[in-house]
Amino acid sequence: MSRLDNAIHELNHIEDVAGRDQWVNNIHPLVKLALTIIYIIIVVSFGKYNLSGLIGMAVYPAAVFILAELSFKDSLKRLKVVLPFVCIVGIFNPFFDRIPIYNIGSFTVTTGMISMLTLVIKGVFSVLASYLLIAITTIEEICFALRLIHVPSIIVTQVMLMYRYISMLIGEVERITKAYSLRAPGQKGIHFKVWGSLVGQLLLRSMDKAEAVYESMCLRGFNGNFYYSEKHKFVMSDIIYFAVWLIILLVFRFVPIVRAFGYIFG
Question: Would the CA dihedral through 25, 31, 34, 36 be positive or negative?
C-alpha cells in the first residue's frame, strides 16, 4: 500500500472509529468539544517550570484512551508526523537557561531542561487531546457543536468540506502519480521538471470534480447551509460527564497531587 493509499485508509479508519456505538462516543459533542478546549487551556496555563503539576494532566488522555478502547500505540503512529515538530519546541532552552537545580550523580539538571520538557509535554498533551476529540466524535458532530457556540456557518462549512473531500484530493494525487510512474518506469519519485504540469493537471481535475460535487449537492437541495442532526440532546449523563471531568481537571491544576504522591512514596 502506497503512502497516499495509506493516508486515505487512515482517514476512513478514524471516521469509522468515531462513529462507533460506544457510550463515550455518544456523549454530547458540545461536551466533548468544551472539555477539549478547557483541557488545552489548563495545560498551557502551567508555568514553564511546573513539570510535576503538568504530568498530572495525563489523567485525561489516559482515561479517554481506556474508556474509548483506543490503541495508544496506533495513535502515536498516526501522529508520528506531528509529534516530532511538537517535541522540538523549546529545544534551545537548555542553552539559554542554565541555572542548575539539582544533580543526578555527575549530571546537572538545569531550569532550561525543565522548561524544555514542560513545553514538549504541553504540546504532546494538546495534540493528544485534539486527536481524541476527532477519534470519538464524527466531523458532523464537531461541526454541530461549533454551530452551537455560534461559530460562523461559513467557517464550519469550510471545515466540513475540507475534511470530507481531502480524501478525494488525495485520490486524484494517487492516480496522477501512478500514471506518471507507469510512463517513467524505474524512476524514483517525480522529476522536478514536470512538477508544474502535474500540479496544473491536479488543479483542473479537482475543479472538475468539485463542480460535479457541487451540482450533485444543489440537486439535493443544498443552498449554502448545512443542517446538522438534532438527535443530540443534553441528558443527565452528559452533564455528569462534564462536571466530573471539570472537577478533576481543576483539582489537578490547583492541587499539587503528583508532588504530594512524590513526598509520600519518596
Answer: negative
